[in-house]
Design a protein that fits this description.
23% of the residues lie in helices and 20% in strands. The protein is α+β, with helices and mostly antiparallel strands and 356 residues long. It has a single domain, classed as Double-stranded beta-helix (4-Layer Sandwich). The structure holds fe (ii) ion (FE2).
């Protein structure tokens, strides 16, 4: 189902506000490693220059009551390409407004961070990569990336929840050959989906009946060479009150394995309900979407990624993860101040025992 942005939880900047934001963030130099100094600068600029209504709207996200919010009419850079792999985003546009603004939004809501193998910089560039067309990641394009909460398995890390509390997606460059036809980012509020299920299914989703595997990018890079570290524990996919659940699930292949026919049925029914209540949004330049990862699932339709005259894919979305607690990342190697590498996480004695 596709719904007009005006029908959703949205904040639209006036042209005057847009210009004030542009001026405020134009002169801040982007630090890809997210140093404390950089985060302080953008956070200060946000509180000084964002309209008070926008600050309130962002602060409201801390309650986690809102499934997702859309922000419209943001200033954009002049873009003339798209970065592949770890290319420098600054080589493809005339400034760093998009990075500064998405980090500023994240800095008011919570604490921005990045995982080194998801994106080496604090702002991740999601550009469809020709070689990764069939990947179940943000840079794939030829396969549907089915509904999931981000880094679901990481909610159970022994150092604390290291899944993001939310993610911000910001449009940098649109695909002129796909205007109005996608790809859509699909969002689904699990609270609405659960209203479609019967009590028995919900009870099973709360039970320890599911293996939740690491996302593909994490496999083989987490706890040294162990690639299936989550398979040894059965988990629930729902925790907490049913009107504000913490959902840890990913419906794309080889991610969550229900154990037993009842769990299998509840899982399938939940998947169908999630799809049924979902809505689609184009992440276009000038539009930023904040997704509450606690109970809102996201997915991305497959699409035909087209290229510019230099062979660069047009579509370019930037992403920032936010967390409530950087302390939970304490055992990972840190590049700069906010880019974490879990591959150098040292397993505890307990984990070593479990891995045997
Ligand atoms: Fe995702």
């Amino acid at each position: 189902m596709s719904v007009a942005a005006s029908e959703l939880d949205a904040y639209v900047l006036t042209d005057e506000e847009k210009e004030a934001v542009r001026k405020a963030f134009l002169g801040i130099e982007y630090d890809p490693k997210g140093s404390l100094d950089y985060i302080s600068k953008v956070r200060t600029a946000a509180y000084k220059n964002f309209p008070s209504g926008l600050i309130s709207h962002l602060e409201l996200q801390k309650h986690s009551d809102v499934s997702f919010s859309i922000f419209e009419n943001l200033p954009v850079d002049n873009v003339f390409g798209s970065p592949l792999n770890d290319a420098n985003s600054q080589d493809y546009k005339d400034g760093c407004l998009s990075e500064n603004i998405v980090v500023a939004f994240g800095s008011v809501i919570a604490e921005p961070y990045s995982i080194y193998f998801e994106g080496k910089n604090i702002v991740n560039n999601l550009v469809p990569h020709p070689v990764a067309r069939n990947d179940f990641t943000g840079i794939g394009s030829a396969v549907d990336l089915d509904f999931h909460t981000e880094n679901a398995a990481q909610a159970y890390d022994e150092c604390g929840d290291i899944s993001p509390v939310g993610l911000l997606l910001s449009g940098v460059r649109g695909d002129p050959n796909n205007v109005g036809v996608g790809p859509k980012t699909l969002l689904s509020d699990a609270r609405k989906a659960l209203k479609l299920l019967d009590d028995k299914d919900i009870e099973i989703l709360y039970s320890k009946s599911f293996f939740i595997k690491d996302p593909y990018r994490w496999r083989g890079k987490y706890f040294g060479d162990r690639s299936d570290n989550k398979d040894v524990f059965l988990r629930p996919v729902l925790k907490g009150p049913v009107d504000h659940p913490h959902v840890t699930v990913a419906f794309y292949p080889d991610m969550v394995q229900p154990v037993g026919p009842e769990a299998d049925l509840a899982y399938t029914n939940f998947h169908e309900a999630i799809k049924h209540v979902s809505i689609g949004i184009d992440i276009e330049p000038g539009r930023l979407v904040y997704v509450n990862n606690r109970f809102t699932l996201h997915s991305r339709e497959k699409f035909n990624a087209t290229q510019d005259e230099n062979g660069r894919p047009y579509r370019w979305v930037q992403r920032v993860f936010v967390t409530n607690n950087l302390w939970n990342f304490r055992s990972f190697t840190r590049y700069g101040d906010r880019v974490y590498d879990p591959s150098t996480h040292s397993p505890s004695a307990y984990q070593v025992e479990v891995m045997r």
